[in-house]
Amino acid sequence: MSVEVTLGKRQLQAEALLPMLSGHNIWSQLMPAIVIDQALRTLNCTVGETEAYYSEQIAADGDFIEKKKAQMVREGTREDDLDFFISRPVLLAQFKEKMFAPQVGSTFLKLKAGLDKVVFLMLRNKDHELLRELYFRIESSEEMFEPLAARYAEGSEATGGGRIGPIEIRQLNPSLARVLSTAKVGVVNPPAFIEGVGVITRLQEHISAKLDDAMKQKLIDQLFNEWVNNEVQSFFY
Question: Which residues are bridge partners to 164 per DSSP?
Fold first, then answer.
């Protein structure tokens, strides 16, 4: 016997849902949510914590939470799941803090070299001979880096006179990252050849990463995303 699923005012055949989830690529979003919810259902939070999370919405509309619950029921949420999904953002924040905040210090130390940011000038060109000539012009102060980059650079940096950054070192091509990691500020680096393209660089600024609140949250989110990916692989594949 076919089972019907109610979504708002509509009834859909249960066996039709899986093809729809797959066809609209919703499974890729749903699978992480399933493993996250499995973990969050082991946690609890108070009504006060939930209301604090929605404080702005409640200030604008005192019935906000009840209206949100009513909407969720119309969309198919079961009555016994309403409190969980209403408090889910609070539980998620608690879970991230509990599970991953203790790992932030060691993760920061391990990743710090790649978390540092750099600002630099770059000129890319596939003509290696031309690039060597341009390097000597810049290195000898015969010509300025920026106008040469604007004229000869074959990459997107041409529109900014060669300026790139601030950007985390780990986001750069590994070969370029190695050059800039050991470069001295203000010194033009000899051409490096990366995947057939010649690159001249000059480090303008090296910004050391700091373990402030923003960095802490960034690393917590990174560790959480890695955990989710691993759990999805383990649970579904």
Answer: 120
| Per-residue model confidence (pLDDT) at position 22 | 79
Report whether 182 contacts 176 (CB < 8 A): no
Q: What is the DSSP string of 99-130?
A: HHGGGHHHHHHHHHHHH-EEEEEEEEES-HHH
**Using one digit for the tens of pLDDT, what is the confidence trace for 206-237?**
999 999 999 999 999 999 999 999 999 998 88
3-state secondary structure of 61: coil
Best CA proximity match to 135, nearest among 202, 213, 40: 202
The pTM of this model reads 0.82
The highest-level CATH class for domain 117-207 is alpha beta
Angstrom distance (rounded) from CA 158 to CA 190: 19
SS3 74: helix
Ranges of residues in the chain with a pLDDT under 70 are 1-9
Domain with CATH 3.10.50.40 in the chain: 117-207
